[in-house]
Amino acid sequence: MIEREKILEVKGLQTTFFTDDGKVPAVDDIDFHIREGEVLGIVGESGCGKSVTSLSIMGLVPSPPGKITHGEILFENMDLTKLPEKKMRDIRGNDIAMIFQEPMTSLNPLFTIGNQLQEAVKIHKKDWPKKQIYNRAVEMMKLVGLPRPEGLMKEYPHQLSGGMRQRVMIAMALLCDPKVLIADEPTTALDVTIQAQILKLIKNLNKELNTAVLLITHDLGVVAETCERVVVMYAGKVVEEGPVDAIFTDPQHPYTRGLLESVPDMRFKKERLYSIPGNVPKPGSINTGCRFAPRCEFAFDRCTAETPPLYQTTEEHQTRCFLFDPKEAEKHDRTIVKS
Amino acid sequence: MTEQLLKVEGLKKYFPIKSGIFGKVNNYVKAVDDISFSVKEGETLGIVGESGCGKSTTGRMLMRLLEPTEGKVTFDGQELTSLSSNDMRKARRDIQMVFQDPYASLNPRHTIEKILMEPLNVHNIGDPKERKQKVHEFLEIVGLSSYHAKRYPHQFSGGQRQRIGIARALMTNPKLIIADEPVSALDVSIQAQVLNLMQDLQKELKLTYIFIAHDLGVVRHISDRVGVMYLGNMAEMANTEDLYEKPLHPYTQALLTAVPVPDPAFEREEVVIKGDVPSPANPPSGCRFHTRCPFKMDICETTIPILAEVEKDHYVACHLYEESRPQ
Prior knowledge:
The complex is a heterodimer. Chain A has one domain (6-95, 176-324): 3-Layer(aba) Sandwich (Rossmann fold), CATH 3.40.50. Helices cover 31% and strands 23% of the residues of chain A. Chain A is built from eleven helices and twelve strands. Chain A has helices at 50-58, 85-91, 113-124, 130-143, 149-152, 162-174, 192-209, 220-226, 244-249, 254-262, 301-305; strands at residues 6-19, 22-35, 39-43, 66-75, 78-79, 96-99, 180-184, 212-217, 229-234, 237-243, 311-312, 318-319. In chain A, a hairpin with a 2-residue loop joins strand 4 (66-75) and strand 5 (78-79). By secondary structure, chain B is α/β, with parallel strands linked by helices. An eight-stranded mixed β-sheet of chain B has the order 6-7-8-3-9-10-12-11, sandwiched between helices. Classes of the chains: A alpha/beta, B alpha/beta. At the A-B interface, helix 6, helix 7, helix 8, helix 9 and helix 10 of A face helix 6, helix 7, helix 8 and helix 9 of B.
């Protein structure tokens, strides 16, 4: 495989929320990158910081109370965290675009679809004549498979179904040929048959337009189906990163393994589901040691005392677990005990 | 075969669409349109379908939280649909419900003890001391501790709240539990805990479940039999293994191929159905699935297919199987 160039790189990112209960780092020292034209998935359960990560990249962290307190986000030799808002606005929606979970609430109910699509182009392509903007909007609607695009331009969001609205959102995100598309749970609010259509669309667009996609989701099935590489997050930290095949066939972090074991599979019946004991910790409640240690069946003394670094286990695969420290490897058995 | 606990015949729910200042009824949303099925004692019947297919409406009608427009529900030999509201309340002692949203279904101003005690008060079970004891007992059964009784719902996580919801449903020693999307608001790791709990409780307390969900993986895991609903109709119903291994209705087939599988090596078949679910206010004529069906025939546009047994215990409502039907 030809090594593709890194297009977006997140280095040591920490986003902290300053609340009444003190400082809460929702995302704590995470590193990852997206290469040109690739689909990268970020998976994790609620509260793991996956959405805050995407908002940090877009410069949309609600401030106050949130703030990027550490680290850099490199895009085309620029550090997005240090850009003035005006400059950021040129990038947002133009070079980096985002689609959100709720197609119902992310479109303005008072404006027509056409109005909202054209507005997005107008902001970034100030010198385009009206006709060209209109044509661009129609062209994008055709590209995402919306029927009778010219008629739809005059309609309002409430006249469209959920799947069609999500297609409009995708069309809107693609209007300015973004280099990176961030999709935050794009199919969570949709039914399975519609979800299949939207995922196929995102995959096709990635291939045809060579847009890099950052797909944020909690659904491991969606990840397996669409992504090339996966980042697994837990309680604000990256716990494992690797190519999709490696993550699913040879998951290394106990959390990743537990997560994969606990999903009911539609293809066969498991007698009993494996379940990770306990609950996801409140953000900011665990500051020393591995954040998964209280729920981990392999945890030993070192896990609660020190924070594990990311260990490189193969060329592409990293995991944040002491079991993969060469010094510990012989001492511990890594087989998962199924209850 | 074990005894039938619940029997549903020709159940319908039409919601009127009103317009104008006088609220003239000019159309109906046919949320549930003529469905029949039965549930055997001790089994889990899964009901799956996409949003708007009428699965939740069905669940609510069984308890008469919604009045059916037409049809008959018989539970344990008693016809529920003809009971007075007072008698119905008594009958609900044996049928309890677990709701989807563990945040909205617990009163935030009541302690857990008060929430769990309420069903006992309503049904006049035991004296205050026994009631308290029972609350503590059931908290332990669902995996919480008795000291949780004095706390308020906001002090619990989503998974714990769902455990409380389950405990509340169990307080009256019901025979049947209707669970409407009980795990869809939970994270995967917590979802597995709650599913395991529900399976353990079923064995221990000999419960019968009607499990309503949209997640096909979850339904396969927990159900003995599964019914697939589409736009207010029952499209197919069979034992879980048969339905997942050999789906007959084109809609079930499409639904099963559309689910993303957590295995990157898995090559799935092309999803053949296109478009969206039509509005239940104006459903297609004939078979309701014909607008999206890849095998559509002329008869599908005009005649409503009936749910008939095509193979043993395998029911399907589709014109494709009319010849193969045993006479």
